Amino acid sequence: MKPVRNHRAHRYRGGRIDIVHQNLIIEEPLSIRIDGRPYAVVMRTPGEEIAHVAGFCLAEGLVDSPDDFAAIGYCSEADLNVVTATMTPQRRRKIGGLLRRRGFVSQTSCGICGKELIDDLHQIVQPMTLTSSLAIDRVETAVGLLNRHQALYRRTGGSHAAMVLDPELELMSHAEDVGRHNALDKAVGNVFMAGRLQRAAVIVLSSRISYELVQKAARAHVEIVIALSRPTQLAVDLGRRLNMSLASLGKRGDLLIYSGKKRFSGTVA
After folding, report:
1. What pTM does this model have?
2. Is residue 141 located within the same domain as residue 217?
3. Is 75 a catalytic residue?
4. Is residue 129 situated within a structural domain?
């Protein structure tokens, strides 16, 4: 299934209307089933569904290790829009409460305030120790890697991107999707299922940093998150509670650090 489809559009330019053809990013539903039962439906760009669901399950606290899956795969070879993840009996017993809840932990609920939400998330994410660092003069290198791996964005202008780097800023995984959450789930899911998540050190995002993306990074035990847009206030609050480092690039190329300044070497008090 291709992530792009060509569409005809009418372009107005210089007082004239003509017909142009443009590539548009595809958005389709992905049904995620846990132990044979519907758990969630997300809108995403087709591709890397298994990694997507693996990363989603990690972020939601449904799994801690690839070994927690008894199986993960498409429900049918003819239908790539439905993926089932089957847990081992031991894991199923451990996450019974989450399965009964049957909702996104990483999804804003009506009638809940930011403090309550952060307290709720502490059930599946814990504060981090300071083990990673990044030289400030290498941040531009990390962001440049993201720019070079946005082929879908260059074709459509409509995708988000996420990238996972190791401590040497070597690319471990990258993904693009119509949804910023999906892009990060796919990028993390690939590293997770390859059993290399312990090497992940930095996440780079094309989007703003929302609290859901902080949660996903925390579940992956990645301490540093850099984005091209500013974080939300709730994301910063959660990042501080979890002892994570959140930063974004300003319009003039300035690095704006919102939490975890000590991980950025080259900073002064």
Report:
1. 0.88
2. yes
3. no
4. no
